Amino acid sequence: MLEGKAKVEETDMPVKMQMQAMRVASQSLDLFDVFDCTSIAAHIKKEFDESYGSGWQCVVGTNFGCFFTHSKGTFIYFHLGTLNFLIFKGATTL
């Protein structure tokens, strides 16, 4: 388990939510092969949807670019082991 070894690069999440993101990511690495990024991301998304309501997005991998709009207070980007994790809740537009 890699819990406690994550390095946050950027976030606007409350600290309690950040801790949950890193804890769930660490648990995911115990459940799935490190190369199965899709299953890791799906597990994290499911946990966040259950905890904080639907609309969460999760990207996991070693090399990716992105551009998105997120709801305030719902974004975190961090490294854990060899993987990068991006978790956010999509913003609604009217």
Automatic annotation (TrEMBL):
Predominant subcellular localization, coarse grouping: cytoplasm
InterPro entries according to UniProt: DLC_sf, Dynein_light_chain_typ-1/2
Presence of the UniProt keyword Cytoplasm in the record: yes
Subcellular location: Cytoplasm, Cytoskeleton
Keywords: Cytoplasm, Cytoskeleton, Dynein, Microtubule, Motor protein
Spans traversing the lipid bilayer: none
Xref: SMART domains: Dynein_light
Classification via PANTHER family: DYNEIN LIGHT CHAIN
Family from the record: Belongs to the dynein light chain family.
Protein name (record): Dynein light chain
Protein species of origin: Camelina sativa
Name of the gene this protein is made from: LOC104745935
